[in-house]
């Protein structure tokens, strides 16, 4: 894995580290691909958000860029009718279960969903689908962060950040539509032994976990 | 012949000798086999077994009583087979405790074979028809079900006496690559659902260098209406185990797992016993049969998540992680359990292995179709006269399975569709009945071989409701990791619920189709990729039913609760009969001035009790859809 490979993305030749995943190869070269759950620090891709579809010449179906290692001579297109349609559906699905309240949201203007909508000209509104608001209680117990599960898109950044920095208080629980980010036994953050490091809020791309107006001890761990 | 091969031959010959002795001694006195697989137990086999043992003691009759598995005639459980010297072996069906006593008293103590309770004889004879005279006999061909229900699943010697472990003995004498080559040449495709060529999977695993390799039997059967794997494990666990050991030998694995769901306690018990007995016979552990190959198996119990049948989730589950799928590639054959090359095969796939090794790839290919060689095992459920298990050559038509094996639809109802492949499969209409069944024809028609569940639906089944049922299932069983499956199936379910409740919108059909296509193309694992199939196939073949629900608020099959109303036909009502009144749990039925019964629609909870209560000679209670028809009828009758 020491060499470099050259491939073509959207007509541009780029050279990247062998074994690199397509998503990072594109983003590092200024080519945008929508994404939410991808995490550079993880060895294996989660491939959960289903936003980063691209076309690779010779493949019958679009593939997720976060899970696809680059290969020499690979020809990639980040846009096509199929890709835009899949990303658009995944985006609208995520939006259908994300409580939209941009005006009052702490993540307004830094929100990953807003960025995706802007880049791909998606509507920031649920039109075709039914709105699936889970109406879960907001956890305000921690002195440092507020957790509104109704905004969570299950990208997992907070869970991983918490494992790395905060002692692994957060995790996933539940199946299907009931899957959620929560603590062991569903305890409040304060009762679950949250260290208050704020890494989760720094990692959350959509304003589900937000920092309260206090100075965080060691936040700033960038995604 | 090398020294090891000689050792294997000698060791296996020794086992066969022992088995022959056990078998011989068994037929010296009368032998009774009671089918105590789960299907038998559910029908009362435990009580039958107890009665037989007590009655034998009371009558002082010497006989051997054994518990066997399931023969596939689940509709007629409990089943008892009686071997009595001087008579052909006779199969009795629908055996009650009373019939069980009579078999002992009249047949064993006396000499009357009680033919009135017999389903048939197991061999041709002069007394009574044999099973081979049944129409289904001409359609069925049993390779992996051959001994199910006929041998004692808790005695390895019974299996060995039926050439059990001969395939393993042969595999041990071949080079691993030769075993893989034989499976590859046979064209065997995985029976878990997707139909991937088994030999190619094994070849990848064999060719990937690693310090350790694993083989796993996927016995996490979970489709609604499917019970093939359970029956095989309960009826012939050694067959599965032998397949797994051969797979291990072929790819060079020294450890294996049978991943079986904990809700199958009898399968778990019989598998664990099989492993123990195989170890005692030198068929597991170090230096199997002296051939220099060692292998250990653990029976691993799943914790009840449907998605753990997906191979990457299954692996995660064994590793102690939550049972959640991950991205493929890498495929397990290259990097699976603990990152090592791992072969995962379904129960039925592994069950084919011993006979392929024993009789060769050409023999296997002589059955079935060129693209899908061999046989297919189906669990027949739903609106069929003969529910149960069957095994037919690939290429058999649905017609033959539904009518020749299943004996058609009960109560003179009309066939509507057959649901194949469970939540990943689809509903095929009457026009597909002549289609030969194999992997490719089924996916072409919008269904899927799946693991082999086949649910027959009749005119009373609403196809929108069936689609809703399966979506409800997948939506609940989705692990929730990926957006498409977690939220996509939920959106589809909400739309289907709206339609079945009369709140569907004209654009909903197109929205369903569009979502279905994206969920299929965009989901992370096989569960999501196939989840829309029940919806797609029902829209494809039964679009008119969707349209009736949406446009006319009418359920043509009179099944969707909110779109129907119950009505008593005044001209058919026998005034002095109060059966319906008494049956109604909410006192919704009253007498009008002429003593004719009328249903108060405001009170009615649509429980169907009055329909069942109305004596068959009147049949006065009917269902109407849309519910507004009741008011129209009432007006007409005024």
Descriptive overview:
The complex is a heterodimer of chains A (223) and B (638). With 223 residues, chain A is of the alpha+beta class. Chain A has helices spanning 22-28, 81-96, 112-120, 157-166, 199-203; strands at residues 4-9, 12-17, 53-56, 63-64, 75-77, 145-147, 171-173, 180-182, 209-211. Chain A folds into 2 domains: 4-80, Ubiquitin-like (UB roll) (Roll); 135-223, Alpha-Beta Plaits (2-Layer Sandwich). In chain A, β1 (4-9) and β2 form a beta hairpin. The longest helix of chain A is centred in the middle third of the chain and has 16 residues, at 81-96. Residues 218-223 of chain A have low confidence and may be disordered. Chain B is built from 24 helices and 18 strands. Chain B has a 5-stranded mixed β-sheet with strand order 2-1-3-4-5. A 5-stranded mixed β-sheet of chain B has the order 11-10-14-12-13. Chain B has a 4-stranded parallel β-sheet with strand order 8-7-6-9, with helices on both faces. In chain B, β12 and β13 form a beta hairpin. In chain B, α3 (45-59) runs parallel beside α4 (97-109).
Radius of gyration of chain A: 18 Å
The count of helical stretches of chain B stands at 24
Overall pLDDT metric of chain B: 94
Strand content of chain B: 5-15%
CATH superfamily caption of the largest domain in chain B: NADH-ubiquinone oxidoreductase 51kDa subunit
> Biggest β-sheet of chain A: count, sense, barrel?
5 strands, mixed
Number of structurally distinct domains of chain B:
5
Question: What is the spatial order of strands in the main beta sheet of chain A?
Answer: 2-1-5-3-4
Q: What is the CATH class designation of the largest domain in chain A?
A: Alpha Beta
SSE arrangement of chain A, N to C:
EEHEEEHHEHEEHE
**What CATH architecture of the largest domain in chain B would you give?**
3-Layer(aba) Sandwich
How much helix is in the residues of chain A? 10-25%
Beginning-to-end CA distance, first to last residue of chain A = 24 Å
* CATH domain fold name of the largest domain in chain A: Alpha-Beta Plaits
Count of discrete structural domains of chain A: 2
Mean pLDDT of chain A: 92
Keywords (chain A): 4Fe-4S, Iron, Iron-sulfur, Metal-binding, Repeat
InterPro entries (chain A): 2Fe-2S_ferredoxin-like_sf, 2Fe-2S_ferredoxin-type, 4Fe4S_Fe-S-bd, 4Fe4S_Fe_S_CS, NADH_UbQ_OxRdtase_Gsu_4Fe4S-bd, PSI_iron-sulfur_center
Protein name (chain A): Ferredoxin
GO molecular function (chain A): 4 iron, 4 sulfur cluster binding; metal ion binding; oxidoreductase activity
